[in-house]
Amino acid sequence: MENVLVEVEKYVSSLLRNELPHTFVYHNLGHTLRVIKSLKELIESEKTKGKDAENLLIAGWFHDVGYIKGCENHEENSAKIAAEFLENKNLENERINNIKNLILATKMGYELKNKLEGLIRDADCAHVSSKNYNDYTALLKKELELTQGKKFTKND
């Protein structure tokens, strides 16, 4: 499985570098790497092992690649891109479905169903407790302006 994780990392890194529009100044490879770092810390602290840990890391890598197709339904697009890649790597259908569900758990408003979904959501939102919170939120604000034409006042 470790080889699949290496292949996932290479594939997603390339995809985000080469196909993600430059207007995504927050949801980019840097964000993905921060999510992976947070996931590794959570996996260790929660003593998550084996396929559960691997599925979390794979989902973490893929969770925002759907942005290459735009903002709308990016989680669903991310799950689809992940499934296509993992099917080509002959990963079992049950694992692919588990990984897709973990990706979908990062969607705003999604009601968590299990601990693993909570871990990926926590990793995806770890910037909230980061010492760099203001920097990350400034990037997110800029991304929303660039990708969705949103305007923010100083109070916003």
Record the SSE blueprint.
Elements: H1 2-19, H2 29-45, H3 50-62, H4 74-88, H5 93-104, H6 115-124, H7 133-148
Please describe what this structure looks like.
It is built from seven helices and no strands. With 156 residues, the chain is mainly alpha-helical. Helix 2 runs antiparallel to helix 3, helix 2 crosses helix 6 and helix 3 packs across helix 5. The chain is globular and about 50 Å long. The model has no long low-confidence stretch (mean pLDDT 94).
Structural class: mainly alpha
Distance between the terminal alpha carbons, to the nearest Å? 45 Å
Which strand-content bin applies to the residues? under 5%
**Number of strand elements:** 0
Average predicted local confidence, pLDDT? 94
Low-confidence stretches: none
Describe the main β-sheet briefly: none
Radius of gyration from the alpha-carbon trace, in angstroms:
15 Å
As a percent range, the share of helical residues equals 55-70%
Topology as H/E string?
HHHHHHH
